[in-house]
Amino acid sequence: MKKVTVIASIFLFSILRFQELLHVSSSPHFYGNQVHEESSGGKRNLKQEQENAPEVRCSRDRSRAVWKVIDEYLTPFVEKENYELSKKCRLHPENDMFRDQEEHKIYLDRNEWRCGYCKKSFREEKFIDLHFDKRHYNLLDLSHGKCLADLCGALHCDAAKNSKFSRSKCNPAAAARNRHLCESLADSCFPISEGPSASRLHEVFLHQFCEAHSCSGKHKPFSRGGKDQGSFFRLAVGALVLVLLPVFYLFLYLIQSDMKGRTQELRRISKAGWKAKPA
What we know:
The protein is mainly alpha-helical. The protein has helices at about 1-25, 30-35, 45-50, 60-75, 75-80, 100-105, 125-135, 155-160, 170-190, 195-210, 225-275; strands at about 35-40, 40-45, 105-110, 110-115, 120. The chain starts with a helix and ends with a helix.
């Protein structure tokens, strides 16, 4: 009994120690010690790199939210029409200053991200974002109009991130500004004069994004749906079939068993009746 207790105590201590190491290794302090790099002039840490990095007045997180909205609620329609966005369109990938860095962000698993430029690994996405800001800032295109975050309001990023986004917070002036910006995006990205495909996409864009910029509450963003909704619907149908199919077969089995039992009972009654008659 004592031997079992000792083994259990050692095992518990090992688990607690392992959790402590994980906590320390995932902390920002530990990360700061990990990301020290060597250059030709000697060691160079993140603080030194930050001093040399230019100030970027564009939110990477909100730019990523805009790109996610585009990918989910616009790209499926653009691909269906086989339409190519002009570089003059602010939604074109080249007009996102973070796009090249985002494409060099490699997701390996829940606790490992890798930089596609220098192959360094990080435990969380926020750490690789910091790494890009400090170490690869020279790859950013800081030209005017390259900040996708400026389009967040026009494309309903907050509604996409928060399904409980309240319309009671609606500000008429802000709604009017966002609607104007939204309609200008529709005109520049999908000019009606360019043909039927552009005309159809122009209409889709207005329905998906622009019409919802009103405090009346009559229209909701993403009314035409997106690729996630289609995959969710297929998944729901598949799950429903998997649940109902066994129930259906069980129902058939019970009916057949009941019918078989009644047939046998009728046969017994019939035989008994024949035997009861006099010769």
